[in-house]
Amino acid sequence: MAARPNNGNSNAAGGDLLGLDDSQPAYNTGQGPPVDDNELLNRFDIDDSDQAQPRPSTSYDDFVGGRPAGQQHGQSQSQMGSQPRPPNAPYLENQRAYSQTSDLHNINRYDDDLSTEDYNSTYKYYDGRTSDDQIPGGGVHVVKHGHDRNRSSLMSMGGLVDRARGMLTQREDYSDMNLPLTERRVDTAGTDELPSHEEKKKFSLNTITSIFKRKKVDPATLGPRIIMLNDPATNKSNGWVDNHISTQKYNVATFLPKFLYEQFSKYANLFFLFTAILQQIPNVSPTNRYTTIVPLFIVLLVSAIKEYYEDYKRQMSDKSLNDSKARVLKGGVFEETKWINVAVGDVIRVESEEPFPADIVLFSSSEPEGLCYIETANLDGETNLKIKQAIPETTYLLNPNDLGRLTGKIRSEQPNNSLYTYEATLTASLQSGQKELPLTPEQLLLRGATLRNTPWIHGIVVFTGHETKLMRNATATPIKRTDVERMLNRQILMLVIILLILSVISTVGDIIIQSTSRSKLGYLDLPNFNAASQFFLDIFTYWVLYSNLVPISLFVTLELVKYYQALLINTDLDIYYPDTDTPAICRTSSLVEELGQIEYIFSDKTGTLTCNMMEFRQCSIGGIQYAIVVPEDRRANGPDDLSGVHDFKQLKENMHTHESSFAIHHFMALLATCHTVIPERKDEKSEIKYQAASPDEGALVEGAVLMGHKFVARKPRSVIIEVEGQEAEYQLLAVCEFNSTRKRMSTIFRCPDGKIRIYCKGADTVILERLSKNNQIVDATLQHLEDYATEGLRTLCLAMREISEDEFQKWQQIYEKAATTVGGNRADELDKAAEVIEHDLTLLGATAIEDRLQDGVPDTIHTLQTAGIKVWVLTGDRQETAINIGMSCKLISEDMTLLIVNEENPAATRDNIQKKLDAVNSQQSTGGEHDVLALVIDGKSLTFALEKDMEKLFLDLAVKCRAVICCRVSPLQKALVVKLVKRHVKALTLAIGDGANDVSMIQAAHVGVGISGVEGLQAARSADVAIGQFRYLRKLLLVHGIWSYQRISKVILYSFYKNIAMFMTQFWYSFQNAFSGQVIFESWLLSFYNVFFTVLPPFAMGIFDQFISARLLDRYPQLYQLGQKGTFFRMHSFWSWVGNGFYHSIIAYIFSTYIFNEDGIMSDGKAAGHWVWGMSTYTAILLVVLGKAALITNIWTKYHVIAIPGSFIVWLVLFPAYSYGAPAISSGFSTELYGIIPVIFSNPSFYAMCLLLPPACLLRDFAWKYAKRMYFPQAYHHIQEIQKYNVQDYRPRMEQFQKAVRKVRQVQRMRKQRGYAFSAGDEMGQQTRLLTAYDTTRGRGQYGEAL
User: Fold this and answer.
1) CATH for 750
2) Does residue 480 lie in a domain region?
């Protein structure tokens, strides 16, 4: 089965854990995925954490508590399966295994918020002892309370602090994928799993916290959900969740604790909180008691406002979705209401092109037999439309009156996260009488899917809001921290260590002074001396005194700088998409600098790289090429020119006169008849609209229309086409369906001329080997196929053969026998039957379809790869389609070697990967030129490759490849691949997608980018950045990303520097003031230093500085590697800037003490005094710091002028104002500067210091900058010179030459890499059922239903 490991023997250990009969299909028609998310984490040993060290591993049975108490790990699963079932479990009958209350074991905890005790207390199962009608939500019977759960021991949080941290989603081992990804089972498989006695609950802190915590019951632990038909009051009384969706980070209750936890996880804020507390202790603080706590409050307030505003925007985005319109049946009519008001049990109507507002069971549709088309690209990434069908007994419910009279109930499984399974029963009074009818995934329409090509459907809501399968697959919105923030925390920790060292030195100095020279300091009136108490008093005093080494304004400055950087992204017209009026939206501004350090991009395909719009471009018929648009350099010279390309006008002429007219006629007839497309028109005069399950098929039929063969109607056993105004009817005799193994589809028709013909279309590899020997156009067609593949077009070969009546009758008996095979191998028998008739075909030609990429995708991917970024494509599409798109978007180039991993079991997968890895390592060890590699792996092999014992092997191979494509992957697998790279490679990752199936991947990556589009709303809401097109990723990363990273780095380092340069003077001064703790500067002006006088330069540098222009950053994408390598922000840079601050502070202190020698004797003989010296030093150091800002500025704008010279003007204004104003406030707010202004501004020493000190300090900096640029330049220094002098770039000629070389190499490689354009479903029987269900010659009834 698709979701199980293929170990050959399903009864072996680890085999048929589900206990299903092999004769039954794993999924119902239309629902066969490569893997089942429900199984991935448990059934295979997959690590889903972000941590480098994996969690303790446990077996599957231990993990879900499935092994009886006494059973050993080595006991075989077959022994387990042989144990008897309890006789009173009503859903465990052989004919039908009910997933929620049977031994399917696919239910897990609803969330991690349940403690072990909470979980055990809700351990129940449905046993049928009580009527479902008497118990809302289904009868339940408590089995036990103390059942020990290994899952709880792994996932629950021990201890009160851990519980609090868990509430904030920030445990130490927290991972955003630790939320439940598989549904916890309800134990009814066997009574022998229960211990013989009731176990005692173990006492823990969880026991205490559970007393005060409201217990949340996971609906998956209950029995089946009973939904009453047309009984809103009863349904409402069950208390099921409403239909609102929330992607908010906070709510009213969690905002304060979550915000405070996030803020105080920053070491700087903890540091300032501790300092503020120390300042409140009498006789400890040498500064004012409010100088730290007030700025800290302001910093937190600004951050809180920013966080609230960003979360408010998320709330508004959610509101727009929740307020979407739906039609609910009320009082016999459908009334419009908001999505948020849709409730479980509501009968709703959904019309074409509308998304489903909740999970719905299909009752009826406008199409025959209750059929409808849905698009699930938003769920699983697959582009082809899926067919759903109501059960026959409800298809008559076409009008509101019939729906309103319906009574009965649905017994449904409880909410779970399996997209591909659903089990329920419908009990209702229908036309066929009262009976219990089974409901399967074929009737379930999931939220996130969209109704296509079907005018309307009616259905009943079974799951709403966060209980829908889509939302149960979603993960909690994680709190992401950047690498820069983590390094910043470490740097602040080092500053605190420096502060402690300085405090200890000063404290020891004070103790030595008091111990040896106390008698000389009698004028200080010192208290009694005790070395121990004095040590702690001093160390706290100096802690407060030196606390300004850590800039308190740094974090609020960073928050505001990042906010404005996000605003620049939002307002950039270069990444504004005018077609849909979609600007870029940076939802999480705290991550902007990580956009400049990305090394891996994980991209969805459908809707992200492609438009999902197929267009018929070219075809080859009888060895002659035709195209809609003919390039001038390839235009044919005449009707017989075989080397050129003809237009469709020539094609229509050749249809009548050319020797290839026979091939042209049947080529067109094949395109118009051999498909599963349904024609639809509102009335006889309206244009036909083709309903296609696959966009490929739709494009082929449209292509036939362009060439004069119009498909007009379909009957159950015939197809009608229109050729030159005349209708022709082709009688359908048999269909040999397409699947991924056959790679072809054949239809057998009795043509209008009475002859029987087989029309076959498929991949060139399978068609060419079934041709007769006398096909003369094979070589020419192969050359055309290579040309098409070189252009990235998707190709199909078309062939036909006439069949005699006798041959057909004999074959039909073989086919009918195969179709009635019982025993599980019907599909194989049908394939063998098809082989009997599909031989000796005549090649008609080939088609070329363009799966249109979004504008600029190839150039964007090529540029990103040039920038050193590895691009991985994770898609739900099949392998051939993914490879085609990879080639057309330049992810896979012609000079790459493809490594394909497509195995059916773990052993084969390991062997395949190991052999490829050994070959790559062997080639690299020999030296010389290495092949450029691209890895392609399918979903089933990826399941095995992600197991713990194989993941490192897989990753070692993947990282050696320039490109990786993972196809047929589930949403969960996308997230697991991202986490695998995060965990082992230690590189920054970015995930980009447009659908709900990409949300987990987007949230798992360091940075998530959502495409805002038709299908992209869910992804865009969950992403950190939303853009309109994939091509905008280029400027987002290469320009805004590297700008943000360089600016943030400079802001942080400059902020450290300016504080050290100013406040280290306090330390040097302590050697002259007998370590008394005396300050140089007035305490409030110390605080104003970061708040007023040096706050603007970091803003100017952080928002407007450009170390290289946007044009050159885009022209030279290699510069992006500066961010990947951490060039601008590393520990070396930190220590360099700290050392520079130390250097400037000691130079400033020596100069100032020399200039103000002997207390600064003035011309009138008076001493200038302490505060004149202190404020003169303050002014001079401020000039040094502002001069340093000017020296490191790359580009001068008006904002830099306002910020740097303007800051000094602010000082010249505020300093006198404060000096006069502070003493006059109340009883003297601050009196230290009373009368200082006339003295300081008339003192020549003040001006001498302001003129001499800045050049003395900055001379070394200027010399270092000159030497570095002139003699040791880095790459970006050269680009700055190119920018400054506008040097011409001659590289385009070389690039043209390289393109020509690549073009030559293409022809040699493309033949083996061609794919085919066919993405119809693999499901057996679906195509035949579709072709025989429709009769489009009939009209429609009163309610739009097909008659």
Assistant:
1) 3.40.1110.10
2) no
- Quick one: 890 and 959 in the same domain? yes
Number of domains in the chain: 4
One-letter identity of residue 403: L
* 1027 and 891 in a common domain: yes
The CATH number for 398's domain is 2.70.150.10
102-136 pLDDT tens trace? 333 333 333 333 333 333 333 333 333 333 333 33
Catalytic residue selected from 47, 604, 938, 1024: 604
The two beta strands, 371-375 and 386-389, are antiparallel
Range of the domain at 406: 342-472
The set of residues, in sequence order, having a beta carbon less than 8 Å from that of 1315 and lying 6+ positions away, is 763, 789, 794, 795, 880, 881, 883, 884, 887
1249 domain residue, yes or no:
no
d(CA 1172, CA 1111): 51
Q: Rounded to two decimals, what is the model's pTM?
A: 0.68
Residue 1197 inside a domain? The answer is: no
Label residue 845 left, alpha or beta by phi (over 0 means left) and psi (-120 to 50 means alpha).
Answer: left
Residue 1295 in tokens: 């690039």
Task: Give binding residues for Mg(2+) as ranges.
Answer: 604, 606, 994, 998
Binding positions for ATP are 604-606, 697, 738, 761, 794, 875-877, 968, 974, 997-998
Among 196, 223, 250, the domain boundary falls at 223
Is 992 a domain residue?
yes
Residue 483 known to be catalytic: no
Contacts of 992 (CB under 8 A, 6+ apart): 601, 602, 603, 604, 608, 998, 1002, 1008, 1009, 1010, 1011, 1030, 1033
- Per the DSSP assignment, residues forming a β-bridge with 846 are 620, 797
Task: Find tokens 């103000």 and name the residue.
Answer: 1156
The enclosing H or E element of 1325 equals none
Q: Quick check: 483 pLDDT over 50?
A: yes
885 and 1015 together in one domain: yes
* 845 and 876 share one domain: no
Write down the mean pLDDT value for the chain: 77
Q: Which residues are annotated as a binding site?
A: 604-606, 697, 738, 761, 794, 875-877, 968, 974, 994, 997-998
In the chain the first and final C-alpha atoms are separated, in Å, by 39
pLDDT tens sequence across 965-977: 998 787 788 889 9
Q: What confidence tens digit (pLDDT) does each residue in 898-936 have?
A: 899 988 889 999 999 999 999 988 888 876 667 888 999
State whether 88 and 182 are in the same domain: yes
Domain end call among 472, 489, 506: 472
